[in-house]
Design a protein that fits this description.
28 strands, 7 helices, six-stranded mixed sheet, Molybdenum Cofactor Biosythetic Enzyme, Chain A, homodimer, Molybdopterin biosynthesis moea protein, domain 2, Molybdopterin biosynthesis moeA protein, domain 3
Chain lengths: 403, 403
């Protein structure tokens, strides 16, 4: 009960996490409906078995004809064509275009046999069943050729991609209805503390309402995980042991993560599995721990809500994103801004400093307490002060991660 | 059937959309469980009815005592205190601390009556029931005061905010279980085209598989809308009329949006409601239209998939985000990069040019066809060329919106 003997560096904790994540090819996958796959991570390349388009098609509304017959046409030399039919998307012209003939055609409609170009409607006039060409077209003009979008055998989307709306569009267009995507990691939230009431309950006496459970749930959802959060767990060894053993890919334990007598989680993790890191040279969140229990990764997060948020974002979130096939990088947009006053830190420790942003200036928040969660709602983001830095002077340019 | 008489500017279309969106205070709202509210838009300020914390609490593991009694203590002058009890989170010490006494206390536990500070465990030694103080603490040290995080009457989160994980944490800690958020707009997708097979179907003959439906659904989800997409609609006036009248906040019609004979949607919208804009000076997507039908906003999007994506992102997405209380701005991250070759455009028209990015260089895609959806999956983002520009020279710095 004398604090941590040795604190690991943030980099060492990251290295341990990265070593604990399987290679992309070995991540768990599942097959889902392509229409539901946007924002998911594609597990296997998608290769087309069809040409798109699979037939020559018109790119304009106009008239399909033999291009050589338009040569010499102009508004002063209107060349007549007999309109012998109409061609709509999905409804081809059944005949063959002969000399002096044209077929009315719409964008996307299949080009009739015998035609090699489309004369846009803007360059025509109609006179009964006769179309007058007011201009020339060259062979192939306004015709989309077979496979010009996608050819048989093309990889249309590569594995590892977070699927975009247009990827879903392309995949849907080539006859693929189901996709193999990386399975969302199942993340169990284990909130401990006998003083805790369920989130949203009005605090009474010396009981407080849980803030960390719903906050962690939202963070896990953001990072592509699936939340398992049955309820708050009594701060008793048997209850915590059982919850640690319940099924999950990753377990986040909030509270009781330090080295005090009532901090059961580290002892239980050591007993049931392995504590790889316990105590990290950072502020807040120094009592953070991590390890393995059978196939699970377990993160021991401090109960103070700012520390809990910080420890999640530094460590647990990275693991959840990586096991879900996503980028390990911070999920925050970054901006470069100037400090309006100095930001003091201590060499040997990484600092997570909340700042408010006005224009392109950042002001460090005066309140640094790890228990003051409202400091993270009043701030716009945070600055990470590296462990080899004493902080930044007034006016320094710093990188802010925007919440 | 001679093209558009006048094309509106992109700016005019944006101005029409913005004028059609109610002020924030008049957007539709709904009350939901706070635990499900992350990423939603808060409709009303959340004000606290409680102090957080509602009692003085320890910020450290250590001993609660009367601070003046530690004066003079050091490792060379260990001052003894009788340990008279223990204080855990949620479990207060029932007595009153008297002269020469201390109570073992954990982080988060309520400060016992009579104590005014916490001596950290690191500065103590235990000898049976006696604690030896190895250092001094001043009054109030390591004690969190009532309301230091949040006071009664504080607005903890302001209306209009897209709720962050930590906002949900703070809200959960003040006894608020339900929130008023902006209702997600109900967006009906109306895909027309007799040549279309449902998404994911293998194309056969002159039929093609729908790409726009699932792409639009993913875009709408991204922008906070709720998708209504029952099925593809026959390209027949009665079917389209009925679908336009089905309930929705916003209707997106894909296909048949131009001025051809088979383009029913603009005529039906004019008949049933109002066409405000039809034809826009841009490429692709110039046949885009928009208007109102009773309380609905209706967007007529071209059927060509690249045009559909572009028209969505320029216009429909803006309206969906705004009706959902979100930022009207583009939902894409932006980077400044150099062009590896010139990008040619035409004065009088806005161009949407797909580019590939390597390092900090952008290469315009050679394929510009509005039907080549794979050009948007092979590219990394797009450049918008303003209507007063002839394009950008080789080496110019341009802003790219990253997909």
């Amino acid at each position: 009960m004398r604090g941590f003997a040795n604190r690991a560096t943030v980099e060492a904790a990251w290295a341990w996490i990265d070593s604990a994540i399987p290679a992309f090819e070995h991540l768990n996958t599942e097959v889902i409906n392509a229409g539901k796959a946007a924002t998911r991570i594609l597990a296997k390349d998608v290769t087309s078995r069809v040409d798109v388009p699979s037939f020559a098609r018109s790119m304009m509304d106009g008239f399909a004809l033999r291009s050589e017959e338009t040569y010499g046409a102009s508004s002063y030399n209107r060349l007549p064509f007999k309109v012998v039919g109409t061609c709509l998307p999905g409804v081809p012209f059944s005949g063959h275009i002969e000399t002096g003939q044209a077929v009315r055609i719409m964008t996307g409609a299949p080009l009739p046999a015998g035609a090699d170009a489309v004369l846009p409607v803007e360059n025509t006039e109609l006179d009964g069943e006769t179309m007058l060409s007011l201009g020339e077209v060259s062979s192939g003009k306004h015709v989309g050729t077979i496979g010009e979008d996608i050819r048989i055998g093309d990889v249309v989307v590569h594995q590892g991609r977070q699927l975009r709306p247009q990827d879903i569009g392309v995949i849907s267009s080539i006859g693929v209805s189901h996709l193999s995507v990386v399975r969302r990691p199942q993340v169990r939230i284990l909130i401990t503390g006998n003083e805790l009431l369920p989130a949203g309950t009005t605090p009474i006496g010396y009981q407080i309402a849980d803030a960390n459970g719903p906050m962690l749930a939202a963070l896990i959802e953001r990072d592509g995980g699936e939340v398992i959060f049955p309820s708050i767990v009594r701060d008793e060894p048997d209850a915590i042991r059982q919850a640690l053993l319940d099924p999950a890919d990753i377990v986040l334990v909030s509270g009781g993560s330090s080295v005090g007598q009532e901090d059961y989680a580290p002892k239980l993790l050591a007993e049931l599995g392995e504590v790889a890191i316990h105590g990290i040279a950072m502020r807040p969140s120094s009592p953070t721990g991590m390890g393995r229990l059978q196939e699970r990764l377990v993160f021991l997060l401090p109960g103070n809500p700012v520390s809990c948020l910080c420890a999640y974002d530094f460590f647990a979130g990275r693991a959840i994103r990586a096991i879900g096939g996503r980028s390990r990088d911070w999920p925050y947009r970054r901006v470069l801004v100037r400090l309006t006053r100095k930001l003091v830190s201590t060499v040997g420790r990484v600092d997570y400093a909340r700042v408010q942003i006005h224009g392109n200036e950042a002001t460090p928040m005066a309140i640094g307490g790890a228990s003051i969660l409202s400091s993270t709602t009043r701030s716009d983001g945070f600055v990470i002060v590296p462990s080899d830095s004493e902080g930044f002077p007034d006016g320094a340019q710093v990188e802010v991660f925007l919440y």
